[in-house]
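Hey, I'm writing a tutorial for new members on how sequence and structure tokens pair up, and I'd like a real worked example in the thread rather than a made-up one. If someone can provide the structure for the chain below, I'll link this post from the tutorial.
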Amino acid sequence: MKSYPPGVPARIDLDPQETLVSLLENSCRRFPERPAFTNFGVTLSYRDLDDLTRRFASWLQNEAGFGPGERIALMMPNLLQYPVALFGALRAGMVVVNVNPLYTARELQHQLVDSGARAIVVVANAAATLARVIDSTPVEQVVVTGIGDLLGFPKRQLTNFVVRHLRRMVRPYQLPGAHSFDDLLSADAAAMTPARLSGAELACLQYTGGTTGLSKGAMLSHGNLVANVHQINAYLQSLVAEDENEIMVTALPLYHIYALTCNCFCYTALGGRNLLISDPRDTSGFVAELRKWPFTAITGVNTLYQSLIDHPDFPKVDFSSLKLVSAGGMAVMEYTAREWARITGRPILEGYGLSETSPVVTSNRPDIKEYTGTIGLPLPNTEVSLRDERGEEVGIGEAGELCVRGPQVTAGYWNDPQGTAAAMTSDGYFRTGDIATVDGDGYFRIVDRKKDMILVSGFNVYPNEVENVLTLHPDIVEAAVIGVPGPSTGELVKAFVVRRPGSQLTAEEIREYCRDNLAAYKVPRLVEFRDELPKSNVGKILRRALRESDGA
């Protein structure tokens, strides 16, 4: 506590009845005319957000017939439709299942089936993927949205025309019975029945990589997420405020827990604006958008910040209003941090979190001046314990598994009591699997990752999943996957493959096969063929031996 930021309490009071819905409604009531979300130059005020989310909730309840606790999947990039669907579903008492719009049919099917989602809102250019698996899922209602929906005429028509013809988007009518997002918003807002919710109710199923090759749904309650909002805003109180001029740049996808909480929920609670960036990979377009706004905050991962630093126009951006720069998802490289600070005049605050912790566990102090190489201090109400293999706490400077206890920690995994039990200690800590040390001032430092996990641009890639896909190929006998250093993504996925005798299978054919079954960031960039793979005396493939032989 001697290292804690001035004025930040070790504990904050949390209301067990507060929900994400009451958080939204409070801001809509207090700040109706303030801008809430902006995308493609169009802004929704908090009054607009209140009305549109009521309409969406009304359609879910009265037309689609969904009740509290039922699951709805959201599969879209950062568009105005996302917060409307998100808060509308929560106001109807439903549980949101966030889905990466780049998922393959196999990945999407697993998530829809496992969650039991009966409805989905899908961006049109991902509708073809949904069409391939929908008959084998519980989904009954499909809402398709175009990139330009909610942008208003003629901008909407122009945007959808361009995207449809350049990216071959799938039109809504190609999915039988699908609804158009805009059509739903004609529902009667007054007919919405407020859901009776408490902090204990489930709000989101946030899927995270599974060590068995299948992703698992972390059950995040309204209380978990609201607690993390208050913890973050309390810890960063010197850099955030209930001010109409607060503009958070949201380039990370809202379907990812980092942006969902730190951008969407935190700035909604403050009555601030989220500036939604739909395609941050278009760095030139991204920088051009930044030059239009006196933004006060931005979140990102190391690769995002490095891509901005490398752009020749980035130094032309006006950083005079910038107060908060947050990073997570992957380690911040010292070079990136120092170059960012040199150009912008603001340091990057590195933190640590997981889907299972809503997500933030620790953060560097808001008043740091330069790169620290640590993940900082635990947030208020958060206990961190470093444990050895016997479950006993290690000493200062000693490495141990980082375990977390606090109001933001999940109650467990959806339909997976065994996975839940394995993830929790007997005294209620969540076992992250990450190895860390703590120094005498209370600063934590990650020294090793979850065993075998690969971090590609801030996204977790679990080798088992990639290996499972590879070994389904008829010409592959066995395969192993590791992470190797990458020039821009943090790590690259590398596959070691043993072909069947006589096979002439090529590396590019393997990558093409993987692209049909895995999200792009999981596809092996490097493929090495071997006659055999190193194994233990019980036949387990030794990834560590592969890493050592590869110099990774």
